[in-house]
Write a structure and sequence with these properties.
The complex is a heterodimer. Chain A is mainly alpha-helical. Helix content of chain A is 76%, strand content 0%. Chain A contains 6 helices and no strands. Chain A has helices at 3-14, 20-32, 34-51, 62-110, 115-133, 140-161. The longest helix of chain A has 49 residues, at 62-110. Chain B is an all-alpha fold. Chain B is 79% helix and 0% strand. Classes of the chains: A mainly alpha, B mainly alpha. The interface between A and B is medium-sized, with 30 and 36 residues.
């Protein structure tokens, strides 16, 4: 290796990070080159000067505080996961309520203002609600039956309002 | 199996005493590493706790893909870098000046109160320590991490490379530049 290359490797040599064959070459070069030998001494001096600073110690009650923080973190994590669930559940519940209310009142909204039609719509809603209440509203099958009944009521009301209206809910005749 | 990895596996299995043994071994090196990296004694304590909280919380999913110390120092480095960025963003880039003032104040107090000659020595040592810390703080983050890991933590180049996420050749170059800069800063001091 050339002089400049060896000079660039002195720090790595000092850190014990050069290969054996390079190490021998550097040792030999340091013995004969004053400039590199001065560089080596300067680097050694710098490292030793840097090391000459006192360490700090962990403060009193370090572990107690750490333990408390770990415990508090675990509790916060649990609370956080509960808090994360609350909005999602609330949004879902609000959506289900809104959708259910809409499908329940839709026969009245669409059945027009004819008294017979309105009466029929109200009767249909009552029937849908009673059907639903016989089973848990949270049971998916009961909720599907409730929606189906509401859809059928809607169709029935539309047909009562307009005799030319074609059944849209699966081919029921709705008494016609 | 590496003893530290074994301790992590024991912690993963629910043995809390394994965590205490890891703390016995590493709390002091980590607090000093963070202190030298950030230049703040006070915040180094909290940041060291943050490091060990991360270690504790990661134990359940711990998979020994690297040496434990590499992983530990990487966590400590990331926490320190985040802290330095937050400090910079808050408009208080360095807390060393405050410490320098407070240490200076302590020295004056000691010297005038006791009049003992070792007070002067202690003060000189403290001043020297703060001067070194100031010189370290003037280095770019990756050079600072590399020099602290080499000089104070005596980590080999390949481990430093993994901790700071660069190649071994880059570590050599970072250390060369860091030493050159420190020599210039601490000229005539050694």
């Amino acid at each position: 290796m050339k002089h400049e290359e060896i000079k660039g490797k002195i720090a790595a040599f000092m850190d014990g990070e050069v290969k054996e064959e390079v190490k021998d070459e550097i040792v030999h070069h340091l013995a004969t080159c004053k400039s590199c030998s001065d560089e080596y001494e300067a680097l050694l001096g710098l490292d030793s000067y840097l090391k000459n600073t006192g360490d700090i110690n962990p403060p009193a009650f370090f572990r107690e505080t750490l333990e408390r923080r770990i415990k508090a973190g675990r509790e916060r994590k649990f609370e956080f996961s509960i808090l994360k669930l609350i909005p999602a559940t609330a949004v879902l519940a609000a959506f289900v309520l809104f959708a259910s209310a809409f499908i329940v009142v839709s026969p009245i909204l669409y059945a027009g203002d004819g008294q017979d039609t309105q009466k029929q719509a109200v009767e249909s809603i009552k029937s849908a609600v009673v059907t639903c209440m016989t089973a848990s509203v949270f049971a998916p099958a009961a909720y599907a039956a409730f929606c189906d009944k509401c859809g059928s009521n809607m169709c029935k009301c539309c047909m009562a309002k307009d005799p030319n209206h074609k059944c849209q809910c699966g081919g029921h005749n709705h008494g016609k | 199996m590496d003893e530290d990895i074994k301790l992590m596996m024991e912690l993963k299995a629910g043995d809390k005493t394994a965590f205490d043994r890891l703390l016995d071994k590493y709390e002091k090196p980590i607090i000093n590493y963070i202190y030298r990296f950030t230049g703040s004694k006070e915040d180094a304590k909290d940041l060291t706790q943050d490091t060990f909280i991360k270690v504790y919380n990661a134990a359940q999913g711990y998979n020994p893909s690297a040496k434990f110390t590499t992983w530990l120092y990487r966590i400590a480095s990331n926490i320190s870098i985040d802290y330095l960025r937050r400090r910079k963003a808050s408009g208080n880039p360095s807390s060393l000046d405050e410490e320098f003032d407070s240490e200076g104040g302590k020295f004056k107090e000691q010297f005038s109160d006791s009049g003992k000659s070792n007070a002067l020595e202690t003060a000189e040592k403290e001043e020297k320590g703060l001067e070194i810390e100031k010189a370290l703080q003037s280095l770019p983050e990756n050079q600072r991490a590399a020099i602290i890991l080499k000089i104070y933590e005596e980590r080999p180049y390949n481990e430093i490379a993994q901790i700071i996420g660069v190649s071994v050749a880059s570590v050599e170059s970072l250390l060369f530049r860091a030493r050159t800069a420190l020599r210039a800063k601490l000229k005539n001091r050694f």
